[in-house]
Write a structure and sequence with these properties.
Radius of gyration: 42 Å
Order of helices and strands: HHEHHHEEHHHEEEHEEEHHEEEHEHHHHH
Number of domains: 4
Shape: elongated
Strand content: 5-15%
Structural class: alpha+beta
Oligomer: single chain
Distance between the termini: 130 Å
Length: about 450
């Protein structure tokens, strides 16, 4: 134990250091409180016996604070200023980002910058980005790690577990992602945008979502300009590894192919810190960007080929209700929806379901018509099937075919009889012939003698 504490003097474990690497690898800069809420949410419900919220936070973040201290000594993390509320900000070093790439399973080239200096002015925007990620994630405590906690602590944790789930894991998120309108992924040129958050969670029916966090400082015109840059990036095409030209975003992110081909959706999350009221900004922004999001009317729904689904919500509502809450307004729609409905096209999907149902109903009816017609044809054919004039048995298909092909009877061919009766008729004819020949012979003369031959 002494040797371990010498290596990690703050007593941190691999689990908590792993939390730090994964969270800071995604968020770039964060507080110990944010790292704990994402990495070990069960700790949020402990230490309720502390006198003040400050002491409670200090107690529940102690393990991650220790991990940060040890990682700082190993050159993996560093202190990056403070928030406007006085909390210490932490970020990874270049060495730390490399370690985080292994923890997250990402190429080092996709890890972004170290965010050094992000806290020089209080990091209000990075903190809003982080809180947006946490609100989308809705981290749930693990009751298996709370077996020794008091009943009231476990009950509070269970209440959180019973709320609607969030989307993805921390590894489903990227922050500060360049969207180059010119240049390359690693060396973006001018005219592009930078996504605050990119979410990929196909397991939760959100294959790709871009998120912009706004502290209500920007005007509708400034936000519209940013969305125009998104549109430039979405329209940009490059040659893929197979030599075929594809939208540049598809060379990095995988989205299922579909009959309708809109651009990826963009979610705007407004945090009421600045002076601008989002209730006035959103209508103006929708008007300015109509050409980017407005679909084409088709029967009872719209088609959005080549359009950007733009959705807006407030951070407070997102925190309270999560992605499953009806707190998302898609531009062009007149009611709030949950996130999955807002980024999709439920009316088109419903129309597709109706069309499939109608097609299947028509197919079933057509199949039934064919069945009835086949039965009628079979009945009519059976009515025409000839019967044996001897025993009345219906002809088999082969007998019927042969009788129709050779209707003229012969010594050994009786087209009006079945196979059995024909056999009997042939045998009877053969016996009659033999008897006739016997009657024609001279008494005492053996068949085949020279005299009988002479008589013939």
């Amino acid at each position: 134990m002494a040797g371990k504490r010498k290596t990690n003097s703050a007593g941190s474990t691999n689990k908590f250091r792993g939390d730090v690497l994964r969270v800071l690898g995604v968020l770039k800069v964060a507080t110990a409180d944010q790292i704990q809420r994402i990495g070990a949410p069960h700790l949020t419900y402990r230490h309720t016996d502390k006198d003040t919220p400050s002491k409670q936070k200090q107690a529940r973040t102690a393990s991650h604070t220790g991990a940060l201290s040890d990682m700082r000594k190993h050159g993996l993390a560093e202190t990056g200023g403070t928030t406007t509320g006085g909390e210490s900000l932490r970020n990874l070093t270049t060495k730390g980002l490399e370690a985080a790439s292994y923890a997250l399973g990402r190429p080092v080239t996709e890890m972004g910058s170290t965010a050094r200096g992000a806290g020089a002015s209080g990091a209000t925007h990075p903190m809003t980005v982080n809180e947006t990620v946490i609100a989308m994630l809705r981290p749930k405590p693990d009751l298996a790690r709370m077996t020794k906690d008091p009943d009231e602590v476990r009950a509070a944790a269970q209440a959180a577990i019973d709320t609607p789930d969030g989307i993805g894991t921390i590894a489903s998120y990227w922050t500060e992602v360049p969207l180059p309108a010119t240049g390359t992924w690693n060396a973006p040129g001018k005219g592009g945008a930078q996504a605050d958050i990119v979410l990929t969670a196909p397991q939760d029916q959100v294959p790709l979502l871009f998120i912009e966090a706004d502290n209500c400082h920007e005007t509708a015109e400034e936000l519209a300009d940013k969305l125009e840059k998104y549109a430039r990036f979405f329209r940009r095409k490059v040659k893929d590894t197979d030599g075929k030209e594809r939208p540049m975003w598809r060379t990095r992110w995988t989205v299922p192919e579909a009959a309708e081909a809109p651009h990826p959706p963009v979610l705007l999350v407004f945090n009421r810190l600045g002076d601008r009221n989002p209730n006035r900004t959103i209508p103006r922004l929708a008007e300015l960007t109509r050409h980017l999001w407005a679909g084409q009317r088709f029967e009872d729904h719209h088609l959005y080929d080549g359009k950007i689904p733009i959705i807006a919500t407030g951070l407070r509502n997102l925190r309270e209700h999560g992605p499953d809450g009806e707190v998302f307004l898609r531009f062009g729609r007149d009611r709030m929806q949950c996130l999955r409905e807002a980024i999709g096209n439920p009316r088109r999907e419903a129309a597709d379901v109706r069309r499939r149902a109608e097609y299947e109903a028509h197919a079933r009816e057509y199949k039934e018509q064919l069945r009835r017609a086949a039965e009628q044809q079979k009945a009519e054919r059976e009515a025409r099937r000839p019967a044996c004039t001897g025993c009345g048995t219906k002809f088999t298909d082969d007998r019927w075919k042969a009788a129709a092909a050779y209707p003229t009877p012969g010594p050994r061919w009786h087209p009006t009889l079945c196979d059995g009766c024909e056999g009997q008729a042939v045998k009877a004819a053969s016996r009659a012939q033999d008897e006739h020949q016997e009657q024609d012979q001279i008494p005492g003369q053996k068949p085949g003698s020279w005299f009988s031959r002479l008589r013939t």
